[in-house]
Each structure stands twice: as C-alpha cells, then as structure tokens.
Amino acid sequence: MIRLEKRPMPSRTLPMITPVIAVIITMIAGGALFAVLGKDPIEAIRTIFWDPVFGEFAFYYRPQLLVKAAPLILIAIGLSLGFRAGIWNIGAEGQYIMGAITGAAVGLAFYPTESIFIFPLMVVAAAIGGWAWGMIPAFLKVRFGTNEILVSLMLVYVAQNLLSSMALGLLKNPEGMGFPGSRNIATNASTSSWINEAAGLHWGIVFAFIAVIFAYILLYRHILGFNIQLSGEAPRAARFAGVNPTRLILFCLGVSGALAGMAGLFEVAGPAGQIKIGFNVGYGFTAIIVAFLGRLHPVGIVLAAMLMALTYIGGELAQGTLGLPSAAIQVFQGMLLFFLLALDLLTNYRIAILPRRAF
Amino acid sequence: MKLTKILTGATLALGLATTAMAQDKTKVGFVYVGPVGDGGWTYEHNKGRLAVEEAFGDKVETTFVENVPEGADAERVITQMALQGADLIFTTSFGYMDPTINVAAKFPDVKFEHATGYKQADNVSIYSARFYEGRAVQGHIAGQMTKTNTIGYIASFPIPEVIRGINSAYIHAKEVNPDVEFKIIWAYTWFDPAKEADAATALIEQGADVILQHTDSTAPQAAAQTAGNVVTFGQASDMSEYAPFPRVSSIIDDWAPYYIARTQAVMDGTWESVSTWDGIGAGMVGIGEFSDAIPADVAASAMALKESLADGSYHAFTGPLNKQDGSAWLAEGETAADYGDGGLAGMNFYLEGIEGSIPQ
Questions:
Q1: Both ends of chain A: CA-CA distance in Å?
Q2: In 10 A of CB B2, how many CB atoms?
Q3: Do B71 and A57 touch (CB under 8 A)?
Q4: Distance (Å, rounded) from C-alpha B55 to C-alpha B263?
Q5: Which distant-in-sequence residues (6+ apart) come within 8 Å of B327 by Cβ?
Q6: Chain A neighbours among B 189-218 (CB < 8 Å)?
Q7: Bridge-based pairing state of the strands A2-6 and A349-353
Q8: Which of B63, B71, B189 has the CB atom closest to A281's CB atom?
Q9: Residue A67 to residue B72, Cβ atoms within 8 A
Q10: Rounded Cα gap, residues A281 and A256, in angstroms
C-alpha cells in the first residue's frame, strides 16, 4: 500500500530538484502526446528544448529568449514581494498596459524632438503609471478593506479599454491612414528601448537584472524583506513585531505596479513598437506562473522565466518545422506547470510504501 | 545593422546549402492569427495552403504557425520561417503589417505577401478581397429578412476593412427596407468564441433578428441557433453546418487561386511586388449558397445584385451617398475611388443613417 506521509520538516533539497524532475516527466508525457499525434517524439522534444539554444539558428533565438523573458522577470520580481507577504496582485497585466500608455505618451508628446533625456523621462512616466494603477487596489484595501485580488484583476479590463481608446483616439498615428495604432516609437532613437536590436538587447533586460539584484538584497539582507516574509508566514507575529500592514500593502502593490509599468514601456518602445489594440499578450498573467515556478526567489524567477520563454519559442519552432498544432504546444506547457505543482507535494509529504495488512 | 548582416549571411549560406539538394522544392510559409479549425478566416487561408500543396505536389513544401498574436511575437515567427529557408511567406492578418515589413527588410531574397494591409515593399506584396461586395448582397438579403427591422452587427476592429463592410451592408439593407436600423458591437478581437457569443446574445436581446459578423468563429451562429428565429450569414467561410437556418447564406474568402498563382510566380522567377484587391468578379469573394429560408423573390434579386457586382456594371458604393454627419461623399452616379481622399482604402466614417460613432 502506498501512502503519503507528512514530513516532520519540509524538505530543503526537493524544491531544488523537483523542477528538474518535472521537466523530465513533461518530456516523457509530452513525447507520448506528440507520438500519438504522429510526430517523432525525440525530434519534437529536441526542437522545443534544444534547437532554440544550440540549434542551427541559435544566434537568432538566444537573444529572443531574453527579449521574451525580460518582461516576465521584471513583473514576476515585483509580484513575488507581494506574494511572499500574502498580498495578491493579480492585475499586473493592467499595470503593464498603463505603464506602456503613460510611457509611450511621454515619448509621443516629444515627437519629433531628439534628445537623450526623453527616454529616461518615459521610464519614469511608465513607473508612475504602473504605480498609480497598483495604488488603486492598494488604497481601496487599506481604506475600505476591499479584496485586492478582485480589484486589481478588474482593473485589467479597464486598462484594456483605455488601451483601445488610446490606440483609436488620443495616441493614434495622424499619418496612419485612419488605421488604429500610435506612431512607431521603437524606430526613433530618442524613444526606443533598444540598446542593440541585433543582439536582442534592450533596457528591459538590463532593468530586469537590476531588479533581481535589488530584490535579492531586499529579501535577504534588509529588514523590510524580513518583515515581508514574516507577514506572509505569520501575520500575527508580524503585528506583534510592529510591522505596519498598511505600509506593507502600499509598498508591495506600488513596487509591483511600477515594475510592471516599466516592463510595459520597454516592450512598447522596443519589440512591440507601438500602442495598439491587443498590445498586451498576457505577460502580466504569465508572470504569476513564473513567480510561483521560481519559488518566489529572485534567481528562481530568472530561471523560470527563461524556461517559459524557451517553451514559447521552441513551441513556435515545433509548429513551423514539424507541423505540430498550437493546441498541442499549449497542452505541453500546461503539463510542465501541472507536474511542477504536483511534485511540490513532495516537499511537505513523502511517499511511504507500507506492508500489506491482513484484515 | 549587424543582425541584417548576420541574417543575410545566414540566408545566403542556407540558400547555397539548400539549392544543391532541393532546388525544385519551393518552401511556402503561412502565419495565421487564429487556429486552423476556427471555421472562418484562418480556416479558409489554410484551405488555400492545402490547395497549393495539391496543385504542386512534391514541388512545394508548406509550413504554418497558428494562433500568432499580432505584435512582437509575429516578427519572431516570420523571421523563423525566413531562417528556415522559406521562399514565400504569407502573413494573413492586418496586424502583421509592420512585422512583415521589418522582417522583409532583413531578408531581401525572400518574398512576402501581406493580407489586408497597406504597406508595400520591393519584396512585400499586399493582397485583400473586396469583402464589401459580399456585404452588399448580405445587406440586401438581411434588410428583407428582418421582421424587427433591427440588424445586429458584430464588428471586430475599427479599421477601414470592417467599416467598409458595415457601410456596404447598411446602405443595401436600407435600400430595400427604409426602416432598418443597425446595432453595432465592437468586439476588439478577430477570434474569441466566448466574446463573440456574448455579443450575439446581447444583440438578440436588444431585438436584433439578423446577426452579421466580422469575427471569425461560428459562436454567433450557435448563439442564433439557440435563440431560434434569428438569421445569420457565414463569415469568411461557408459555415454550412448551420444551414439552412440560422445561416441563410455566407461570404466565402477564396484564397486558393491567388496562393497558387503567387507560388507559381516564385517558381518561375516572375514574382513581383504587387497590390491585389479582388472581389466577386475575380472569384476572391464568393457568395455561399442561398438556403430555402430566403424567399424566392429575395433570392432572385440578390442573385441579380451579385451578378451586377461580378461583371462590374454596378459598384457597391454608388452615389448619391452622404457621410454620417450629412456632408456629401459621393454625388449622384459617382462611384467610390479605391485610394485618395475619401477613398475606400482608408474609409474611417459611417454613412448617413447609421447610429452611434466609430470608437475613438
């Protein structure tokens, strides 16, 4: 008989190895899925995991991995602070949109002026835009005790409608022949977030890694980080220790909003290029998965974001070269998350095989 | 700049490597905005792809990527196809315009074809269909089928292509039924069955008994079927699984002849950058079979309208026509120009009689 037994202490090594085990199980189960679809499973797995990094065209895909991972890292780092403290910002997608709008609006306002001061101003505007959008659920929570999960999520839809309105009206390209969408700000050196487009390097990647370092220091070397962890794990103890929950809520939602807003700007001023309907493709939501996949740890988040980026890019590659349907790729990504979370169980429980009892 | 060099270098190397072994195999790539099983827009583009395979057999190899978001991801997918050695790439949604142009600049030897956009380049052709001609026939039937005099319209994005469709359907419905009224919902999506079904239901609840759609899924058809007594038209594809009712006819996009001709041109080395905008006459826009739910006299006059559009004796936008604000657009007998001021390509206004405003 097989039974789950609670471990006296959560395992310390397992959280490190379960992601690797989950990836291996996903490869096996995914390979079986691809085989059922009539594709060579080994080739499919190789196309998804190996080709983007070491294949013939890796020179193109490696930078693309960073481009895809950067917004995920930036947003997930912000979210992880709140998640550790039990403050659930689900609306990063909305803050991402707002940052893109405010940042791009500043850039467009200066068109066609050229100056090296414009881009820093755009970054600040984006951070303020995202911060302000994050402050709405924060303020409502501390003032009226509303649920920040619902408020922040609902504000995503408000932001999406604002985005549509901006693309159709205020920020519409006057030379766009009536088509919705702003001017392209990525092609103008003063407003572009690209450092080197050929290498796939934009400021978002730089800021993502700065954010990782700051988050690490904050969480493990600073009293505020300790307070965040304490509030999440033992809220009562935190209150006795004098942690001010109001300040913590404002801080966590504000920081995650500002980071998401900046991520939005780096995307709109670089890879996306213009404010348009459908600009947001779900980075704010995927970042929630990335944050948990990375165990809310700054370094883990970097690895998780790279892994997600790899499945996206490898998945597209497998569609193009092997003719795998996109639904199969989505199932494959789903499997990865499922196995990861399922194996999490082993951190707190262990499998015990008991001798068969006679009744 | 460096990337340009690297990429061109890579394509050159690849070109050299592949010409020796697969000189006679032309690689054609397709980028789709929805899934191939959407039953509408992407489904028809994919039928075009399959027709290319059938026409050329072993001489072509086609690949596609579906569900590609319109934006940064599209650029990567198109680049990937070019890197993999595609000779010809069809990007089949409006939002792929800038990505297509960007990638095309990096791969001067690869030919690109962008659907429904307006930016052309030396190695980028543009092509679209005059869907508004089909909308004219649709409006003509819809205006006579409605009993509540309310026609619901599920619009996707406020771009000229969609606005042309609304205007064309409206004036031809109004022509046969002066009391007709349009209710328009903007869904801001090309493909989202849940959203489309919600929009259809909302329109039906507001009294619409005919639903026209400019979105790609069959969800509005299903919603109409559930509601009973509501007429629909297939969009982009025949959607004949909902015939004879609620689907009474359809607008069918037939890309196959164009895709075959363009592939042939690449094989022959005669490919040139062109701008193609064909309608019912050239066969790019088809009208699906009229079901028995349409009264015989309506079907006959609709057929006559279709014929006159096909042979060019009638233009779907023929004056006198005024803009929504009452200002004159086309004088008596004047037909709309394709380009220029007030041209169809950049149409961004409603015609007189339509209520509401184009979202801004």
A1: 13
A2: 10
A3: no
A4: 10
A5: none
A6: 189
A7: antiparallel
A8: B71
A9: yes
A10: 18
Q: What is the CATH number of domain B132-252+290-346?
A: 3.40.50.2300
More confident residue, B6 or B15: B6
Out of B1, B69, B345, the one facing A281 most closely (by C-beta) is B69
Contact B346 A178 (CB under 8 A): yes
Distance CA B162, CA B352 (A): 17
- Chain B contact for A174, CB < 8 A? no
**Sequence-ordered strand ranges (E) for chain A:** 2-6, 194-196, 201-202, 349-353
B2, two tokens? 């460096």
Q: Judging by beta carbons within 10 Å of its beta carbon (0-12, 13-18, 19+), is residue B58 exposed, middle or buried?
A: exposed
pLDDT of residue A359: 56
Check if B2-129 and B132-252+290-346 are the same fold.
Answer: yes
Place of tokens 């951190």: A347
**Confidence check: pLDDT of B2 > 70:** no
Single out the residue of B10, B354, B317 nearest to residue B168, CA to CA.
B317
The answer to whether the Cβ–Cβ distance between B118 and A177 falls below 8 Å is yes
With an 8 Å Cβ cutoff, are B359 and A168 in contact?
A: yes
> pLDDT digit string (tens) for A64-117?
999 999 999 999 999 999 999 999 999 999 999 999 999 999 999 998 888 999
Q: Is the pLDDT of residue B19 over 70?
A: no
**Is residue B64 within 8 Å of B87, Cβ to Cβ?**
no
Distance CA A70, CA A77 (A): 11
Burial A183-196 (b: 16+ CB within 10 A, else e): bbbbebebbbbbee
Q: Is 70 exceeded by the pLDDT of residue B146?
A: yes
Q: What residues of B are in contact with residue A64 (Cβ under 8 Å)?
A: 76
How far is the C-alpha of A175 from the C-alpha of B99, rounded, in Å?
18
If contacts are CB pairs under 8 Å, which of residues 183-202 in chain A contact chain B? Answer: 184, 196-199
Handedness of CA B297, B300, B302, B308 (dihedral sign): negative
Task: Tell me which residue has tokens 């001798």.
Answer: A355
Q: Evaluate if pTM is beyond 0.90.
A: no
For chain A, the C-alpha Rg in angstroms (whole number) is: 22
Q: Which two tokens stand for residue A21?
A: 């085990």
Q: Do A320 and B65 touch (CB under 8 A)?
A: yes
- How confident is the model at residue A357, as a pLDDT? 63
CA dihedral B222, B227, B228, B230 (to 10 degrees): -80
Element (H, E) at B31: strand B26-31
Write the CATH number of the domain with boundaries B2-129: 3.40.50.2300
Tens digits of residue pLDDT in B193-245: 999 999 999 999 999 999 999 999 999 999 999 998 999 999 999 998 998 88
A254-284 pLDDT, tens per residue?
999 999 999 999 999 998 888 988 888 899 9
B339/A contact by beta carbon, under 8 A: no
A331 contact B CB<8A: no
Shortest Cα distance, chain B CAs vs residue A189, angstroms: 14
User: What does the pLDDT read at residue B147?
Assistant: 94
Indicate the domain borders of chain B: 2-129, 132-252+290-346
Place of tokens 């994919």: B46
Residues of A in contact with B18 (CB under 8 A): none
Q: Give the whole-angstrom CA distance, residue B289 versus residue A230.
A: 69
Report the largest interatomic distance among the alpha carbons of chain A, rounded to a whole angstrom. Answer: 86
Whether residue A323 and residue B64 make contact (CB cut-off 8 A), yes or no, is yes
- Cβ within 8 Å, pair A168-B360: yes
Side chain identity at residue A74, one-letter code: L
Torsion of CA A62, A63, A66, A67, to 10 degrees: -130
CA distance A259 to A78: 6
